[in-house]
Amino acid sequence: MLSLTNLKVKVGEKVIINNVNFNFEKGKVYALMGPNGSGKSTLALTIMGHPQYQIENGKIEMEGVEINNLSADKRAQLGLFLSFQTPIAVSGVNVFQLLRLALSGKKDPLEIKKEIEKYASVLKIPNELINRSLNEGASGGEKKKLEVLQAAVLEPKFLIFDEVDTGVDVDAMKVIAQFIKKHKKDKTYLLITHYNRILRYIKPDKVLIMIDGEIVKVGDYKLAYQIEKKGYEKLCI
Ligand SMILES: Nc1ncnc2c1ncn2[C@@H]1O[C@H](COP(=O)(O)OP(=O)(O)OP(=O)(O)O)[C@@H](O)[C@H]1O
Ligand SMILES: [Mg+2]
User: Fold this and answer.
1) Which end of the chain, C or N, has fewer beta carbons within 10 A?
2) How many other C-beta atoms are found inside a 10 Å radius of the C-beta of residue 27?
3) Tally of domains in the chain
4) What is the full DSSP assignment across 9-63?
5) Ligand 1 atom closest to Cα of 194?
6) pTM for the full model?
7) Segment 105-121 mean pLDDT
8) What's the CA-to-centroid distance between 117 and ligand 1, angstroms?
9) Of 96, 100, 7, 99, nearest to 45 (Cα)?
10) Closest residue (by CA) to atom 28 of ligand 1?
11) Mind listing the pLDDT tens digit for each residue in 169-215?
12) pLDDT digits over 130-146, tens only?
């Protein structure tokens, strides 16, 4: 589905991602873990095409097509989706208006509206929040739920959730996890997380550990438990 080959990423003169090689397969769930500042969000933003992160070397391919030079919106059209670690507020635009624009020509506005209502009910997002400017004044957990709702309506193929479990209460986390489980078919998930709790509900096929911009270890779901018990230093350094 998505492959990274010898990927090296810089911001200014600083190398953040170094020599990352990985192939994400269709229909699988991956967890990406690692200490603060190890480069997880940078990797996510680079895959999505954030202009601040320059690819110094290597390539990103989506279904066999190199996407290094594509803009973020082109990547989104190819089926990439990123739920931000810190979702930004968009003043004057509600989630319906945003999704209608993103899906123009692909989904009927009425269908979009119906889907928003359906998923808002599943995710327990109140109507008032749906009608508000996106993320404006929303709590941490509400923002994360709104990200999941957008993913549901957009129906991407490769979904990155950057700390979707941070700041959400246990009920919301279960709802989010169940949601991901239910919508796994033909999709690939990359869940960036610091905690095992979400991984108890969605068992990842593989757990990747990133340290200092490199993927230093890959294992099955048990690796996440070992990390929790022993910490990164003992296991990976
Ligand atoms: N735009 C930027 N300018 C300068 N340094 C940056 C920039 N973006 C990221 N970095 C640096 O790159 C490193 C990796 O940051 P990143 O946000 O990818 O870490 P992370 O693994 O997601 O950490 P966390 O678990 O805390 O979210 C950090 O040292 C960070 O300060
Ligand atoms: Mg991060």
Assistant:
1) C
2) 12
3) 1
4) EEETTEEEEEEEEEEEPTT-EEEEE--TTSSHHHHHHHHHT-TTSEEEEEEEEET
5) 25
6) 0.94
7) 94
8) 35
9) 7
10) 37
11) 888 888 889 888 888 888 999 999 998 888 889 999 999 999 999 99
12) 999 999 999 988 999 99
